Amino acid sequence: MTDQQPIHFLWGMVPVFVMLLLWETTARLQLIPGGIFFPPFTAVMAEVGDMLFGGVLIPNFMYSLGRVVAGFISGSVCGIGMGILMGWNERANRWFSPIIGLLYPIPALGWLPVLMLWIGVNEMLPIAIIFICSFFPVLYNTLTGVRQVKPELINAARILGASDLFILQRVVVPLALPNIFTGLKLEAGMAWKVVIASEMVAIPTGIGALMMRAESLVRMDIILVCLMILSVMCLLFERFFAFLEFKTTGKWR
Amino acid sequence: MPVISLSSITNHICQGTDLQVHDGELLVLAGATGAGKTTLLNVIAGLTSYGGSVQFNGTCVDSLPPSKRNVGYLFQDFALFPHLTVTENIAFGLQARGLDKKVISHRVSELLALLKIESLNNRYPKSLSGGEKQRIALARTLAPHPEILLLDEPFSNLDQRTAKFLRLEIKSLQQKLGLTAVYVTHNQMEAFEMGDRLAVIKNGQIEQIGTPVEILFNPITPAVSELFGAPNIFQCSRIDALDFGLGKANCGRLTLIVPYDGKAVDKIAVFPSGVRLSRHPINTPMPNRLQGIVLDVRLKPPVVMVDIQVNDEKITAELPSQLWEKIHIEISDPVYATISLKWIRVLTK
Q: What is the ipTM for the molecules in this complex?
């Protein structure tokens, strides 16, 4: 990290601090009618402490986190695998492309009623939804990445004596990584949005379900805590993959 | 027995093409864009499908994939793996063959030293200049000890000075390592500088094959002559030796200073692109300074062909259109010409 970067980061945080200050002031001075629906920022942060020590937040957070990790990893791994297969093998692409082309436009949450009937309301439901949400975009990004590898590089590798498997491992997949990471970064945040939505609709545990219970108890502070967690987790997941991308491709790009 | 033998090659461009490349020679494949030069290289490497037969040292290799043909291929745009360091790029072919790490490390060090690129070993291609990239590509190509070297316009993306330097280096390496090489180019100077023999290709067919001098002085078709800039050919009646490997040649009423090695000279070729024209006397230390009259001007964008008469002999000059617009010479105008020695070739008896 250069000397300039911490300064840039701090400057970048200034609008956030201003927004929090406005939030706090508006709520404290009750400038918005119906103050119960608009607690100050400090009250929300105090609620975070209560929820942490009261044993409410961590179990629900872990439920959501577990679902996101399981659904996202399985969906991404399958998406990457399928993308490589379709990008590398023209016959596989011809076979699967029409099917995937038909299924891809269906929004992940559109599968919810179908999956509720097929697999029931259980732990697999949000995982399956996140799987679908991650699978298609990661597949298309991987496919694009594999297709964009210059044919001359593949020919050069062939002439140098490399087998197809060696070329895939050492040339195609590494060069497709920037595209793969684009898909992962986009879908890492989306997985959190989808898990919250599916928990709000169909699952009794997790951050989404906690929000729905808070809504029935008119606890705006808890709802805001949950939304803040969602926002932070989306950001953290995206940043994590941006970091991984930099670590794996930063040197040569 | 030729090291590479192509018999009745047919595909989307070639229609029954035959070609033999002898042991240790560098054959230049020259031709216009789309003539089928790269296609023939790809046939030798096994990168494209074809009918007919390709033999290496008398053994048919048609059923072998590119990875088993043991050829080295130097691409026009280098084709370095951008995600690998210089060392990893050079080691790629050795790792693909599953060689021992020590053997790989030794061979990579050897090539880094041979091509004088030790200081670049941990750099990525994005930080290298064009010339450095091509040296790395050459090291990577030579690493697995190929028997045959294929070069597809390897220097067309480099500046002239770097390209000339690398051409000489490749030629010297090819001779030192005893490699049989096929070199594709559309650059006439490159073709003459590099080739032991030259094959002119048109529509996938070998139009003429021979030494560069044979083809230059005896083109069998106008197309072949045109490809090499339709040189001015003069019959030499007498030559007197001067110092510094030069000779004063009398060609009819024209006198030219030419490269001379003491052998009897038959004909002299002057490339039109090497004849420089000016409306005013040229005060440079160039050996061949001539004065004449413009006979004809033919526009052939992006160049202009100008015929001038010097002492009853006709010389054709090729000028870039921009230069011609600048000096703007017309028929019957007096004109001054210079011819650099590097654009003159001599046919000995």
A: 0.85
Domains belonging to chain B, first-starting first, are 4-227 (3.40.50.300), 233-348 (2.40.50.100)
| Average pLDDT score over residue span A95-109 | 93
The Cα A130–Cα B230 span in angstroms is 70
Read off φ and ψ for residue B151, nearest 5 degrees: -125, 120
- Domains in chain A (CATH in brackets) are 59-248 (1.10.3720.10)
Whether A25 has its CB under 8 Å from any CB of chain B: the answer is no
As a whole number, the mean pLDDT across chain B is: 91
Does position A112 have pLDDT exceeding 80, yes or no?
A: yes
CA B261 from chain center: how many Å?
A: 23
> pLDDT tens for residues B157-192?
888 888 888 888 899 999 999 999 999 998 877 888
B92–A160 C-beta distance less than 8 A: yes
Query: CB of B96 within 8 Å of any CB in chain A?
Result: yes
- Order of strands, edge to edge, in the sheet holding B344-348? B232-235, B265-270, B344-348
Tell me if chain A has a CB within 8 Å of the CB of B259: no
Report CA-CA distances (Å) from B95 to B83, B103, B124, B239. 16, 10, 18, 58
Asked if the Cβ–Cβ distance from B125 to A155 is below 8 Å, we say: no
| Spatial distance between the Cα atoms of B75 and B73, rounded to a whole number of angstroms | 6
pLDDT at A68 over 90: yes
pLDDT exceeds 60 at position A223: yes
Q: Which two tokens stand for residue A181?
A: 């990471």
